[in-house]
Amino acid sequence: MKVSIFSTCLIDLMTPSAGKAMVEVLERLGCELDFPASQVCCGQPTYNSGYLEDSKLAMKNMMLAFEHSEYVVGPSGSCIAMFHEYPKIFKGDPDWELKAVALKEKSYEFTQFIVRVLGITDVGARLEGTATYHRSCHMTRLLGEKETPYQLLEQVRGLQLEPLKNSDNCCGFGGTFSVKMPEISGQMVDEKCDSVLETGADILISADMGCLMNIGGRLSRKGAPVKIMHIAEVLNQTGEPAAATKGGIRS
Hints:
Strand order of the largest sheet: 6-5-7-8-9-10
Radius of gyration: 18 Å
Distance between the termini: 35 Å
Low-confidence stretches: 241-251
Shape: globular
Oligomer: single chain
Structural class: alpha/beta
């Protein structure tokens, strides 16, 4: 099966190890990968800030970058959810509406692709530890995907998964929300950190790096010894010591 990788800005610039892990897992599952070099941002930051027309330039670039792909897979429920917004944005545009629909229909978040397209829930991962999982708002509410991360994590040998209280609550990141509303955002991430610490878990996992950077940074300031791991890094573990992030700093 041919799969085009959509790396996303945060993975590309801040945590390439998570992108590398995603590639290695997909290759291990038999996928033939490529990386269209013309891809850039999905346009979400400017779109969420109200600059619709300016955002369309980036969106059109992404539609062209993946125009000939069979499947597009990204390590972010948030960015893939942005692709799923394209048909609404370009509705009625004779030049771009069909391209927008085509990109939506072949785009999947990483765990969603493994479970719903490949039909796999056990990727052969092994990681000793106690973990909890943070749901991102965009992946849960906009993309509508709630189950696939749990289905995969439940099959990781050696990993004890603890439920996270108020898991549907936002961590306070929300991209530009954390910049525009820093006091509210700070209170929200403090509540999320308290819930994480109540689980007693030593690893926090999520499918969106923005949330992990936000929560991990706050945990670091609190001096809490909780590692953060993108779910691709977890699923790429085969029993060797985890190459994870401890309190927001690579360990």
